[in-house]
Design goal:
Helices cover about 10% and strands about 45% of the residues. The chain contains twelve helices and 54 strands. The longest helix is centred in the middle third of the chain and has 18 residues, at about 360-380.
Amino acid sequence: MKRNELWKRLVAKPPKMRFLVMLMCIFCTFNAVFANVSADKTVTIKSENISVKEALNMVKKQTGINIMYEDATLNNVPLKLTLNKEPLEQALSVICSQAGMRYELVENNYVLILPIDRNAKRRTITGVIKDDTGEPVIGASIVIQGTTFGTVANMDGQFMLSYPENTKNDELMISFIGMQTVKEKIGNRHVFNIKMESEVTNLDEVVVVGYGTSSVKDLTGSVASVGLKQLSQLNTPNVTSMLQNLAAGVQVSQNTGVPGETVRVRVRGATSLTGSNEPLYVIDGVPVEDPSMLDAISPNDIQSMDVLKDASAAAIYGSRAANGVVIVTTKKGVEGSKPTVNFNYNVTTDVQIKNFRILYGDEWRETVRRFAKETLVYDPSNQYALEILEPNSTALGSANTNWFDEVKQTAIRHNADLTVSGGSKVSKYLISLSVFDQQGMVKGGDLSRYNARVSTEMNVLPILRFGINANMSYTDQDNANTSLFSAQGFRPDLPIYNDNGEFDLSSGSANPVANTYKKNHNNIYRIMGTVYGEVDIWKGFRFRSSLSGNLQFTENNSFSPSFLSTRNEASGSEYHYKYSKTVFDNTLNYNYEFNKNHVLDAVAGVSFERGISRSTTMNGQTYPDNDIYTNLGSAASISSWGNGYNASGLFSSFARINYKLMERYLFTFTGRYDGSSMFGSNNRYGFFPSGAIAWRISQENFMKNLTFINDLKLRASVGTTGTQNLTSFSNRDLYEATSYNNLSAIIHKQVGNRDIRWEKSTQYDLGLDFALFDYRLTGSISGYIKDTKDLIWSFDFPPSATGGSMQMNRNIGALTNRGIEINLGGRVLSTKDWSLDLTLNMSHNKNKVTRLVEEGKAQSAMDVVVQGSYADQVLAVGYPMGAFHGYEYAGIIQDQARIDELNAYAKSKGQSYYDGNSLKPGHLEIKDLNGDGIINYNDRVIIGNPDPDLFGGLTANLSYKQFSLFANFGYQIGGLKIYNKTLQNLPGQLTGLIDYGLNDRWSDTNKDAKYPALYIGDGVPRLTDHELFDASFFRLQEVRLTYNLPLNKVIKGQLFISATNLFTITSYPGTDPATVNSNSNYGGNYETSAYPGFRSFSAGLKINL
């Protein structure tokens, strides 16, 4: 409206209005210089019952805008307003829409509140408003853009809006606190289905850091955060598996899939030679070194998982943070919310992936006979081969037993969770119960787990809060006593039972089916609890004190029936383990903002920890019965027993200061001082500092014109963290009772080292975080160097005269990890019905051992120190941890003449034979790398690297109306893994065979074969790169289709179906390229074959009341 038209309308009004107009003109004279400032004015009003006049006065006070109205024209209706820093025009639209008024802006600094002309012809539109999860957006504001015609959505998200047809504006504006404003063209439409998305960007998300929280945009360290949106899509049996493929720099490796098994987690590589390389887990503020304690929590109870990767983020945990820190936050109740009930149930079946074939029956017998004939060509006196080929020979049985089918069972698991949560104005609570029942794929391998959790907090006073978190778990587990490995390796020509109906023991040991009758049972009780109190001392100061306790009780009972023993004697054992830990934390937080340019966030505290463990083991034999009297008390004798005790204490003081200057410059300084009883008196205390800086470049004035950049932050950090990879009494001299010449004796078992000190990692980190194109593309790029020194190595002294050996722990090693991480997230598609989000992470880590001690080094042809004795994976200076240590070969020996040449060379070096006296044509010609004329351990060299060149994950979230599809992909490029079925051998006792490479073995008629000959009676071949394979893979780890049930406003529900491990693209010939032996501190890159590879199919239901 032009100014002269407005003037004509106003001067025609009564005297009161004329007086107001005169005042307005006077104000215009003084305020003209402030024109166009309303664009950056915001309004905050939160009230359940406020009058129109009061609301307008609050707008005037907060914005400085002059609001003109006549009291008589204001509708006397109560307003319900929840405005939070809303733009001025949007705030006015909400107020006027509820008041039945309209407003007009004059010169930006003046607002007229006017009545609505109700005589005009009207038009009505309707619609429904839902969020990106399909839930109704209750109370959303719907306004015709630029007018005051509007309404709000009801409890079902529905609205109806009537407005004059002569309204010129043709755009509908929908807004709600915390949601992105939506604008829709009206045109000829009468019905609208609106989808609103969260206004909170990834940069506004809160992540949990040590003893506090931070928004992503204010982080100076490297933190990978996985929130509820992704975690809720996963169908995993345990918490530690939930990070797989979802966090850059975090490598999660499964072992075999046996029920109850833990996984291996590495954050930016391994840092310890002999101790644990697992990260420190912090569950609701309580540090936990044993990953199995996470089984006390149901995966459905997890709210978020934040991985602290660099020293700036992790140094607050000091001496235990060198391997990274995983902070696990569980779900809590919400203050002021109504009671809600959530029920989840899913059923899963595991199906074997048939990526190998075992030879059975006549095929196996014919294959064995073929290799027997080939054996006799060059070894005509081989008794094993002669017996096999004799007419009417009984060396080969007539049975056709598929051992794997005999020990396999239907694998199915059930998972049910029930959660009740809510809160009042002064309290919040959550109670959850869960049941997990799994029947494994191999007979005897079953698990049932029961979890309960309670979380509550109460505001006793406005400044005082108390709370409790408690997690309880009971696991009832039967361990399988047979495996895929035993089923593969057992002779298929032998029967399950002999002619007497008893288990066949003709091989000298129990067969795989017989072993399923062994008993191996665990009862595991876990309790984690925290009681805490918080008080707001003064403005910005908060004190918190908490007392936490972890308890674990484990009972193991095993029994082997007499019919499994060739001596017809039963045996059994019992094992009892008890662990307790208490943590007493006290922290003081300070948070204050100075004139909007200076923000200070600080925490300081002290912590006391004490852990005690006790164990007892007893073994018995000669039981009277195989069915009832199987407890240890029924044994006729106790054959052996032992007990153990460990105790440790940790005292810590720590502090962190975060300072933010002008929203652009961020500084973090952290220090922790730890004292541990595990170390010698000379090095009992350690200081672990870190510092970080970050520059939000996007906040600088010179970036204002680059509108496609929403956020750009450069960060750098350096700091020191540590590990205490020792048992409780490693710094002390220890003695052990034994016997010598049938007399009691005491031997010196361990030499104490009072100078033993922490393993320390110094880490340098440089990163760039960004958000582009209206937050549609977000991500980070980080590079790091992590140097670890003073690595602890256990040195073995020569055995004493009594047969005992002594050890001593020393700080002798060093290694480094260097890497690059990239994390990208993008909103690819976002429309009314469709949305597609993609995330991609990729990581490269190069691990290298830089120093080892000479004492006790392994035999090798390398000119560097190698530690690892006879292992296939060793520690070698200049190479990654777990590098493959084996032999090089010069091809396959083709004839006896070549053997004679090699033996002649050996004699010239003073040796009798080059490679033993049984070398034949068809064997590998191993290279004599040290030139001494004989093949032995001194000819071994590093032949391969187990670490991948690149690994990571890709996730996709696609939604269409009430349907959503989640896909989680994992990949690895590079890295080698042993497949020990490549060069199968047939000892004299014979074994089962896998259909791999058997037709490409060298023989007199197949001299161009890829693999050496297989001769009956040959031992296990030496490790060469014949058995090393590229473990690269691309896998669909998990896919999930969800449908939001169209129930009602009280009951919400979801149905879903999902599958894991649907396909894997790889050249690795074994069951799974991604599995490792999780019990190995390093290495473990070989085919365990304890469990077959499998894929899972699930269906489930979620109900929310």
